[in-house]
Design brief:
The chain is of the alpha+beta class. The chain has helices at about 15-25, 240-250, 255-275, 300-305, 315-325, 355-365, 375-385, 385-400, 405-435, 435-440, 445-465, 470-490, 505-510, 515-525, 545-550, and strands spanning about 1-5, 35-50, 55-65, 70-75, 85-90, 95-100, 105-110, 110-120, 125-135, 140, 145-150, 160-170, 185, 195-210, 210-230, 330-340, 340-350, 350-355, 375, 535, 570, 570-575. The longest helix is centred in the last third of the chain and has 28 residues, at about 405-435.
Length: about 575
């Protein structure tokens, strides 16, 4: 195929665009006034009611240090509870009722109850916010007894807390006045409580006649404290809360979900194996040969595709660009650095050249079908986006040379398509499955996992299936031997410059996945700078610049061949 390249299209000047970007960068941005605040105290008093519900009173003192504030919020998760009921809220001991505008609170959300205090905008000052709410069905029974687990501080808060006092006790009996704030009595017989903390500077735990008292200080952003205690069985919980019952039912159904997911995976793998049986395996045994010279006159991209079982990638396209430069189709010159980064520019040279389909496709893709010069980074990006078209052209050229087996390629492509479809099925199926989590827990996601496992089986089967013909396998073995020779040559530091490595070998080294090794070799052995490469400010060429150029053509695709907790609450809190 003869292709005539135009000599038009010098650089497209981007000076105006660059000047505009610099001008915009010099315009000062408008930033919102910063708000700084912290919590002097965050106290929590938890009262355990006879039915296993909790009455929680939170007292939060904010020190607004700079900026203007008009609301404070608290979000309480509803997980591991049977619901949350807001009882009252205050600001500086003044009650806030539910409503709109300053002096009211807004309550919203179902899974996460959000309480938002709204007030007249205020500047630097100190204010105390109170919140009382009832949490139903927190206590539950397991093999240890009646369990109460509560995360007393929000897990998500952008402010620091200077100190915190947490207390937990049973509801006061008529006439009783013991317990923190005279609201609770001792828990009775109780095991030593487990107090878990995160990002808390110091904390002390005291158990006084069963009442748990925690005092903490220097709590960093997103720091929290969780209290878990166990009472004798049936001393508090007469029946399991609804969330616990649902959790136990879901766990009982777990083996069925496992069996269903396993069935999906097994059926998918069997289907993959059935398709794989259509594959006609090679009838010859090939061994890697020790080749110290080019095995044959073959374009670098095709050589790279041969050792990759008929597959091509953007690295082969970049090797084609270097090969075209070595053949006088392109010129490469180094541009002045930007922020210390080397840059290169590709230019088409006038003349008539005989190009194969994949070479023409690489040229058209890199230059976007135009004659204008293009930077290497932009050409690489275009080749990556157009890799599918380039791969099709490579396969066409391999097939024209009898190096691909159409039936083997069809099976390989079918296996790859099956694997991708199964993977997508697992990913897309996870979306409706998410609606089942509230009822069945995370078990339904195993169904999606079954599709994913079968999908990976299809992709692995495709990767281990060659599309090469018997002739292609024989010639691929020769190229693997040549790759081993190149690798050994570049690794041998005693080899004199250019002894077994020339500029013609560079395109093959890049196609065979040895661009980085080639770059290191050129740095150690200066002198192999071809005439088609021009270094910036050095008409004789620069070895370092050329070595960096070769290394920049490496294919980046790789080699071929939270704290959920078991407690309720947590949530978030903040001010704005």
């Amino acid at each position: 195929m003869n292709v005539t390249l135009s000599d038009r299209g010098d650089k497209l000047g981007h000076t105006q665009l660059l000047a505009l970007c610099l001008l915009l960068a010099m315009v000062p941005g408008v930033s919102a006034a910063s708000r700084e605040y912290r919590a002097e105290r965050f106290d929590v008093a938890v009262t355990v009611l006879p039915a296993g519900d909790l009455d929680v009173r939170e007292t939060l003192t904010f020190d607004f240090q700079s900026g203007t504030f008009e609301k404070v919020w608290r979000e309480i998760p509803g997980r591991r509870t049977d619901g949350i009921e807001i009882i009252d809220a205050t600001m500086d001991d003044a009650p806030f009722s539910i409503g709109d505008g300053p002096g009211h609170i807004a309550v919203s959300g179902s899974r996460r109850t959000r309480v938002e205090w709204r007030f007249t905008p205020i500047g630097p000052s100190t204010h105390t916010f109170g919140l009382k709410y009832r949490v139903r069905g927190v206590a539950y029974t397991d093999e240890r007894g009646d369990v109460i687990a509560w995360r007393a501080l929000p897990t998500d808060h952008p402010y620091r807390i200077a100190s915190s006092h947490l207390s937990l006790g049973l509801a006061a009996r008529p006439g009783a006045t013991t317990g923190p704030n005279r609201e609770a009595t001792p828990l009775g017989p109780v095991r030593t409580p487990v107090v878990e903390r995160r990002r808390v500077g110091a904390a002390t735990v005291a158990v006084d006649e069963g009442t748990i008292d925690v005092r903490a200080s220097e709590i960093s952003r997103n720091g929290w404290i969780e209290i878990e205690t166990v009472l004798p069985a049936a001393s508090l919980v007469s029946r399991q809360p609804a969330w616990r019952t649902s959790e136990m039912n879901a766990a009982a159904l777990g083996p069925r979900w496992v069996m269903a997911a396993g069935s999906i995976a097994v059926l998918g793998i069997l289907f993959v194996l059935a398709v794989r049986r259509q594959y006609d395996p090679p009838s010859i045994v090939t061994t890697e040969s020790a080749t110290i010279s080019l095995p044959e006159k073959l374009p670098p991209a095709l050589a790279g595709a041969l050792i990759n079982n008929g597959r091509s990638h953007v690295g082969h396209a970049l090797a084609t660009i270097v090969d075209l430069a070595d053949r006088g189709v392109l010129g490469v010159r180094e541009l002045h650095r930007q922020l210390g980064v080397r840059r290169y520019e590709l230019a088409q040279l006038p003349g008539t050249h005989d190009l194969t389909a994949h070479e023409e496709m690489a040229l058209i893709t890199a230059f976007a079908g135009r004659g204008d010069d293009v930077t290497l980074s932009r050409a690489r990006a275009r080749l990556a986006r157009g890799s599918r078209r380039f791969s099709s052209a490579v396969e066409m050229d391999l097939g024209a040379r009898g190096l691909l087996d159409p039936s083997r390629k069809a099976v390989r492509d079918r296996l790859l398509a099956i694997g991708i479809v199964l993977l997508l099925g697992g990913a897309v199926g996870a979306i409706p499955i998410a609606a089942l989590v509230d009822r069945y827990g995370p078990w339904p996601f195993l169904l999606a996992l079954g599709f994913v496992v079968a999908g990976f089986a299809g992709i692995i089967a495709s990767a281990t299936t060659t599309a090469l013909s018997n002739e292609g396998l024989v010639r691929a073995a020769r190229w693997r031997g040549f790759k081993r020779h190149l690798k050994k040559t570049m690794r041998d530091r005693r080899s004199p410059a250019g002894e077994s490595f020339t500029s013609r070998d560079l395109s093959y080294a890049i196609a065979l996945g040895l661009a980085i090794q080639s770059s290191h070799y050129l740095r150690r052995h200066p002198g192999i700078v071809p005439p088609w490469f021009a270094a910036a400010g050095d008409p004789r060429g620069g070895n370092a610049a050329f070595a960096a150029f070769v290394g920049s053509n490496a294919h980046a695709g790789g080699a071929h061949g939270g704290a959920g907790g078991a407690a309720a609450s947590g949530g978030s809190s903040g001010a704005s």
